[in-house]
């Protein structure tokens, strides 16, 4: 599969740096040579019939611009810098083209695929067929079986997920939406048990939704058979929208937009945390439902517009 290096006129410094690196025929020869095999600096010099010092200088330029990879490996007389190609195709997007188009991508994250959590009893985690581990044991949230979870609950704390960041270089996030089926967490269930559930993206608080209760008067449309009546059955669908100017929860404005503070473009992932603030008015815990539990056939959804 071809490896692509994407450049954009929206980043003129990077574009000019790479263009300058490619402007020397000798550096083109080095790239062509590395397309066939990896070589150290001495081998490059011998194959191209140039001094080793000249080869080292050109390799440094290509390395600094990200056109090749280098790695020091032990040899017979000390270490040697081994060079390999990084890309097969260099693409240049002209200024203005990206700003006139909008792309939207949605990712579905399984409930149990969290990367961090803080759990407090009452708590538990379960699949569509059985409980995973034991109830009220925070340690069981680290069992490998959690990846099959369709429901999890905790009386306080948070769960955190990492979604892939697929925003191309040179583009900026315009809107991020997080959607999940959730409710409060009371012992058994209690329909008037309020909970202030907050979303954080990349560590930045994005808004709080006050859930009215923990719902169990009727069975959820997708509730697994092992969950008995008298316990939590379903949740409500809640959606956070984070934009440049304002943030919204279920369409209601909850604060000034802080998308620029999140440094979305600087990381290979987008961190999403759901939970109760320690100083919240209603620390009522939360349930999160997957696509095979509750009322709605969906996992946690992250939509990025860029």
UniProtKB/TrEMBL annotation:
The keyword Transcription applies. InterPro entries: ArsR-like_HTH (IPR011991), HTH_ArsR_DNA-bd_dom (IPR001845), Metal_resp_trans_reg (IPR051011), WH-like_DNA-bd_sf (IPR036388), WH_DNA-bd_sf (IPR036390). Keywords: DNA-binding, Transcription, Transcription regulation. GO terms for molecular function: DNA binding; DNA-binding transcription factor activity. Residues 17-99 form the HTH arsR-type domain. This is Putative transcriptional regulator.
